[in-house]
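User: Assemble these into one structure.

Assistant: Restating your components, then the assembled model:
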Amino acid sequence: MSDAARPPVTTVAERSDVIAWESIPRRVVTVYVPLICFVIILLFPFYWMTITMLKSNEELLNYKDYNPLLVYSPTLANIYKLLFETDYPRWLTTTMTVSVVSTFISLFASVLAAYAIQRLRFKGSQWVGLAIYLAYLVPPSILFIPLSTMVFKLGLFDSPMALILTYPTFLIPFCTWLLIGYFKSIPYELEECALIDGASRLQILWKITLPLAVPGLISAGIFAFTLSWNEFIYALTFIQSSEKKTVPVAVLTQLVEGDIYHWGSLMAGALLGSVPVAIVYSFFVEYYVSSLTGAIKE
Amino acid sequence: MAARSERLEWGGGGLHWLARLFDYKPFLIFMCLLPAVGLLVVFLTYPLGLGVWLAFTDARIGREGEFIGLLNYELLFGDRIFWMSVGNTILYTVVATAGKFILGLWLALLLNRHLPFKSFLRAIILVPWIVPTVLSAIAFWWIYDAQFSVLSYLLVDVLGWRDTYINFLGDAWNARWSLIAANIWRGIPFVAISLLAGLQTISPSLYEAALLDGATPWQRFRYITFPMILPILAVVLTFSVLFTFTDFQLVYAITRGGPVNATHLMATLAFQRAIPGGQLGEGSAIAVAMIPFLVFATVFSYFALARRKWQQGESNE
């Protein structure tokens, strides 16, 4: 009847809705109510952290006179305490340095490895690929004890170098895996043309494949950065002195004095520690979601 | 001809032999694999072997161990806390994984509908997964506080369903369920977004055909949606099981294995014994004891995946 009025292209979701003939109240109950519940539950801890951070101590521990879900007189004292009375800025810079350096090391190694496995195609390249994939399945909770003895023997204990060298063990497998998938999508003909024109293999990698693989590199970089920012067990084991700790470890171990929990500062530390990854994530959310789903489909 | 153009590219004869060397394929392959494979062998394969060796020794922090055979394992075999940690790990993995997948699949199905602000919704739903685990665990630590828990406040003071505040982390079973809930909370986004990717590849014509044949919503889910997302489900399941089983951060941050060792997972117990306790050998033995479970979980889900592909007549790439 009104076919002409409908847009010619409909998405999968729209079509499945059209064919389901749902009434509006039914749709509210089956879709919107559960969805809103999910969103509230998934985001509530962040709301709770934010308002805890903004409360004064007196308000924080008095549920009778103040409704805990609201802030009556917001204060920045907790953030001030965190930034100026603890080593927090140093923890942030340490974490940033460690994450950035280990991300670059991993990207460098992964690009070369992925290129060799996917493009230089040699006997056994599949097996190397499989071995790297299997390396991703070895969790840090099995490795940290022997690694701690190695770190000690190498004289790296309590030094950021210990983290910079060990983080690539879980970053490289992941990045290589992601980049192999990405290189696969770049037409091989381009490289053949360059080969015929007399370019060397390294020139091809540097001038043709890499520029085309920039989106893949960005998403691998984001993943590597967030993974190393979130890393906990190695940083907990290999670093001892307070000022060299990374943010996740320091917030947990340094902000609690004996039995006194400074909940306001703890929450401020946790929230501020999440900011860098949140920024990186929000800039590249499209890359992130698509590469996440792409990596899964591989 | 080729040599001449190369010389031009590399700006003179000095680097000529180097350029030639890098065009020699076996050498190039070797150089390309060297950084990645080198780092992985030194900091992953070697420690893995070293860990297995340490488990057979009585090494302590600051002291080389001597070979003591299976003594560490024998001690663990009679250790009640170790067996409790095994039980906790299995309970934690099974319940949390099931919870994540049921709720994650539900969320994915909801997100697959035609909704306003779709991409915004997807972006904010991933937030719990982006934020460092330990930092969100701290939020849960505070949410589960014995005196000032907001959950207790809601149940007691707002809804009036209970008379007393819940002692979330002080009681063994309460603490276990609290940890499982926190783990599910963190795992839902990843499962939902990955499964959503699978859902979006399903052709709507299948649903149309099913509708014409009079299939109920449940039948459409059971015979179309579920089989079509099974391959992705298997991959995500493998990873989820693997990471839940070896989880350390969440438990360490919220309970540190307490109350009275009741919530130790194998990973946290290994840490407890090896690093603060100094018993590297015993800690390694606990860590090594995780390996058979991991291999089993991986192989199991890999074959679930392979069987599926074989049934669908796809070639195994």
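Chain A touches chain B through 99 residues (CB under 8 Å).
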